[in-house]
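ugh finaly. both done.
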Amino acid sequence: MNSEREKDTSASNRLPRSRDSRSAGDPAHIVESLAFSGDGPKVEDMENALRGLDVIYDTAVVRVPDDGQGEAAQAFIVRGNEVELDESGIKQAIRKKLPQQMVPKYITIIERLPKDESGRVLKDELAGVQVRIAQPTVPDELGPPEISVKGMGDFDQATWDAYVVSHQNSSPYHLSAFLRAVVQTYHLKAFFVTARRKGKVCGVLPLFHIPSLLMTPSLVSLPYCDYGGVLADDDQTLGSLLDVARDLRAKIKAPLLELRQTCQLPAEKVSNLGKHTVCSTEKVRMALKLEGTADSFFRKIPAKLRAQVRRPQKEGCSVRTGGMELLDDFYRVFTYNMRGLGSPVHPKSMMGNVLNEFGEYARLFVVYSKDKAPIACAMALFYEHMVVNPWASSDRRYQRIAPNMLLYWSMISYALERNYRVFDFGRSSEGEGTYRFKQQWGAEPEQLWWYSTYAGGIPPEESGDSGNRKKFIAVWRKLPLKATTVLGPMLRKGISL
């Protein structure tokens, strides 16, 4: 072994505070016992994969209780020589090299692993060490954060992503991969706001300026998805980022500022956006907890649902999973369905750019009829422990054989086989058809908090609302498919939903 690693140190048996996906404001949490689960890759396989990375000298992986989601992998890591990355940096380096199922949820850096004379890691000693959630430093002791506002060409995307994956409320939409895909597709003006203390990132806020002919021009975090918004380590940083959002809206003269959050913001900080800020709680995201194997999960869903999944299979349907090679078939179904809904469609380049930017963490699922025609499609993004479904469509002419049921089961089983723990069906309003569809799978609603600030304090009349919207939908549905495919992207750019 390297002599530098054999050098004893008083810190050998002390573990630094680890980053946890739970709230930084929670009381210190102590893991008192470690247990192994049969789900996911074997611990030994994960350890071997991690040891093959340059940034890691040695590692031991255990499974720890994970806030009601079963168990998660915790990796105790000895960094390679001259490697100075922190826990979030190590995790980002792992994500770039290994499949998602090999990425431990929690990372703890230590000086050396406790071992016996034969070199075997003494995991009982690791289990006996108190692993604590890092508590936030009192911001007043450090002063206000330094704020920078960058465009797509000059913000530090690696540092941004490292912070995003370390934050409990982050999503795949916060990653620079999605932000790049949006800019590449629509060439929007983007603002990437970063807060730092002593050079370390403590908050981020991505914003896009959405010009529009149909809707109110707006500054949004984030457009074309269900959620995004601000990420911050503490309330003072949150307030500073909201101040910047308010000032940017005024600078570009956007009538509307909108932040789509997965958690409620403190009321005293929301006022930073402006006194006319309102919060909508009409939407929820439908999240399905995934447990066990695909086979065991399938047996637990209602018998009627199982029969609906089998129906298209009995009709000769099949499913393909892949990437760019399925994009044409995906888009064929997607454009047909969106016209039927009376909604302008994204350009095919939007999905293509997402596939390119996310790589193996974005997959297309396409259901084919017995005649090999594409009849249902979806995209899934894989992030940390969850799978997010931003787009899905089915051809209503095949509704009788329910290809969408096989489509969703294909995504859910794919996620289960790779040890993901949550499947996010996307947003719905309580009681509507899509809500009930997602609910039958066992998905539960999680509140979304959409904050809107209007210039002048009065929400402007939307040209797409009420009777005008119904007229638009009726006309759009009657247009030739080719026309909606050409015109749709021109209008879709200005519709942030």
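ok and the 2nd:
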Amino acid sequence: MQTTASRILTTHNGSLPLPDDLVDLLWSREQGTAIDDARVACVGPVAYRGQTRLQRDLADVTEAVAGGDPAGVFLSSASPGVIALFHPNHHYPSHEAYIWALAGAMREEYEAIHRAGFLLQIDCPDLAAGYHVGAGVMGTDEFRRVATVHISALNHARAAIPPERMRLYLCWGNMEGKGVGTAQSATCATT
């Protein structure tokens, strides 16, 4: 993987095309329309069902880079924790059980990206922004307990992928303003 200490190689990379029903849902939420919680919440067993879209995305990126030698081509994938942050659990007996179910489902996507020869970037804003969004501000000890569960499940999901073929993207969210109440980096890390 290409690295540098002198500049940022990439940052947010935008969004892949979304299904029309999801775009409609996001616009409704943006306009303040009440959203049926069942449309965004986990209300049954988690299973990966994006195989067709994933294969199309992998083929599109493969075609886009064919004949060139782009360094560090990567595909982003959501962490189990960030999925849980935006899709509340109404099915599993605990947050931990939900995270582990999500990790099991996402493993398929992580490994497919790796098998296709691309770097895997796992987007994990839950490991920082999770401190101040969602159910409200949590204390440092609770945040670290939750983050430990998220990291353990994530490590299980990406166990077949060598560390040098992946990277983790961490952010504090996209809220406007000064970030009052956000976790400091020392809060997120332990020794």
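summary for the 2nd one i guess: The mean pLDDT is 81.
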